[in-house]
Amino acid sequence: MIEAVGLTKRYGAKTAVDQLSFQVKPGHVTGFLGPNGSGKSTTMRMIVALDRPTSGHVTINGRPFRELPNAQRHVGALLDAKAVHGGRRARAHLLSIAQLSGIPEKRVDEVLAVVGLQDAARQRTKGFSLGMGQRLGIATALLGDPQVLLFDEPVNGLDPEGILWVRNLMRRLASEGRTVLVSSHLMSEMALTADHLIVIGRGRLLADMGTQEFIAHNSAGFARVRAADTDRDGRETLGTALTKAGGRILQEPDGALRVTGLELPQISDLAHRAGVRLWELSPHRASLEEAYMRMTQSSVEYTSTEDPRAELWEPEPLALPAWEDEAEAAPEVPRTGFYAPPPPGAGGQPFLMPSNPGELASASGNPSPNTPEDTR
């Protein structure tokens, strides 16, 4: 197990890691996430004593790294795949580390086979591709058959087959009861690999929880609803019914409605009573990427003027007009439809829901059934 308590690292006036406390437990793949400059690499370097903390401490199985006897057999780490002498052959690189750590020579050939580099064992590492360098770094981490493993961006440069192999390797190592800490920017891969997440931003702890729990805590809850395309004014009828029931609605670019404030069974009942056929009624299931973006949006150090992350932020819906009496058909002011703001970056103008089938057909590019043939 890895345990950090009040871990702090300062470089002059800059605080890279600030009072960071967490535990990485055995038997799980723990994802270590955070934006660039958040202090992930610095933290991992302090775990293996490459950097000294300004204050606080970190232990591995209850002892600082420097006090572990024959540390290579207790801890394996891939922190920089390029940290290899380019003139050495792959096997010679691993053999030198094995001899320094008292590891049998046969183990060198075993880990070369595990990472798929047995045919490249005699090649000099300066000719290695980025993916081959990653595989050699993983072989180095596995060399002492350690119980604690740290990997910083282990799939960088790997092809899809290599990424799948790393994913399976991490999960197998954890299933053997090992402690596995993996840092990565690939959210889709972390969602498939990590059981637990530690998220930091600007050197501070933002989250320490299970992956699914993290997604649930940092996701916008809403339902996607789509009326049948054959029902020309069903969307407006449905929107009106949902708004009267207390729901808040956004129109999405593909024509679906995003509904908050109402549960799915209630939406279904309201659509049925309004006589609207539904083609879609589904809960929004956030991805790890979306949840991560929400959590870290205030911790990003470098942000462009055109920030695509804004597409993942939940816009503030504009509610439809409320009627005091639900039996009342409409207010005295003629309605031209209901409004919903567009997604961020779409120009700032709200979508207008046409109030008659002809307008709706024109907006969608499909002719109205009442439009004369010669005017289509």
TrEMBL record:
SUPFAM superfamilies: P-loop containing nucleoside triphosphate hydrolases. Keywords: ATP-binding, Nucleotide-binding, Transport. GO terms for molecular function: ATP binding. Residues 2-227 form the ABC transporter domain. InterPro entries: AAA+_ATPase, ABC_transporter-like_ATP-bd, P-loop_NTPase. Residues 323-376 are annotated as: Disordered. CDD domains: ABC_BcrA_bacitracin_resist. Residues 363-376 have a biased composition (Polar residues). It holds the Pfam family ABC_tran. Belongs to the ABC transporter superfamily. This is ABC-2 type transport system ATP-binding protein.
